[in-house]
Amino acid sequence: MNPELSRRLPVFRQEAHAAPMGLYLHVPFCLDRCTYCSFATTRDRALQPDTIRRLIHEVRHWGAALGRPPVDTLYLGGGTPSLLSAEELTELTAAVRAAFDLTPLAEATLEANPGTVDAAWLGLARELGWDRISLGVQALDDDLLGRLGRIHGSVQAMESLELARAAGFQRRSADLMVGIPGQSLSKVIEDARTLAATGLEHLSIYLLDLDKACPLRADIDAGRLTLPTEDEVADAFEALQLELPRLGLQPYEISNYAQPGGESIHNTRYWERRPYLGLGPSAASQMGACRWTESSVIPAWTEGRGALEIQELDGAEALSEIPLLGLRLHRGIGWNHLREQAEQLNLRPLCDAWETRLRALASEGLVIWDGDHVRLSSRGMLMSNGILQMFV
């Protein structure tokens, strides 16, 4: 264990036993790399056996270091976790169950690529206790999927949702991407309707993000492809805000919609700033005032020589993250509670300054105050990047 983390271990152990925490495991392998991807992933499957062995080692190590703490949410993300062999998935799941107390477990999510799942693998995952699946559909247009470098087609995407249902996954989520070159507003709405008609419980709406270098960014910069305009993307989000509730999927976070009770419990803990441990290349953890990120260099992480990025949040940084993250949720946050926390940290002037700006935004229809409770309006959600910048 990193010496800096070892020094903080007593604090981590205390927090890990104060309330159940979340556990995120990162599987960085893919059959191919999407044209928009800037995550820590690789197509070098030769690394997979050693990386999964190291991940299992880390699960056991951290479980022992924290004293087998209670965990209420599991998330197996990637990359493409559905590339794990049956043996790897079984051993990894068994390691988690042995190293952590899963008595309070409320949700166990795994991500999967529609081009990599079959009935046998899904059935095994369900038998092992994974009860929620998130499928990277992205679009139901084969031309758009090809542009994104996805390995599946629209028919495969729909088949994967049905395979997951047949395997016993009552909790199914799909990703739908907005802002793809050549994507029309009518197609976004059509895809949302088609996905909702499968009875899935959860839908995540993601804006195509090309902030970092990737092949699709190069095509845009070279003029070979053109992104939709900001107004076109805003129109798509606004149309989805109206259409998805009609389809039984209610908004609970800027980018996420669910049937009642179908919200992602694990992801919600991030927006609520509750503790979580992330294991695997590039995985992030937060416990107490400490946050750290594992090395994103996959071979280095696998060999145990990757450097951690460790951040100790000061009072102002920790306080600012409450509205920065909490206002992403449609229910918003309680301002009196935030004000009390600010007073304990001697940061009341900072909180008052935020309140003054949020009150002004309310007069513009971007923020809604209900007593001491504050949340973004529907229009405010569309402009959230600019609004939330005040907390950065």
Give structural notes.
By secondary structure, the chain is α/β, with parallel strands linked by helices. It has 16 helices and 15 strands. The strands form three sheets. A nine-stranded mixed beta sheet has the order 7-8-6-5-4-3-2-1-9, sandwiched between helices. Strands 10-11-12 form a three-stranded antiparallel beta sheet. Strands 13-15-14 form a three-stranded antiparallel beta sheet. Helix 2 packs parallel to helix 3 and helix 13 packs antiparallel against helix 14.
Strands side by side in the biggest sheet:
7-8-6-5-4-3-2-1-9
Major sheet: size, sense and barrel closure?
Answer: 9 strands, mixed
- Provide mean pLDDT, rounded: 92
What structural class is derived from the secondary structure elements?
A: alpha/beta
Beta-strand segment tally: 15
- Helix share bin: 40-55%
Proportion of strand residues:
15-25%
Text of the CATH class of the largest domain: Alpha Beta
Q: Which fold name corresponds to the CATH topology of the largest domain?
A: TIM Barrel
Poorly predicted residue ranges: none
N/C terminus separation: 31 Å
Shape: globular
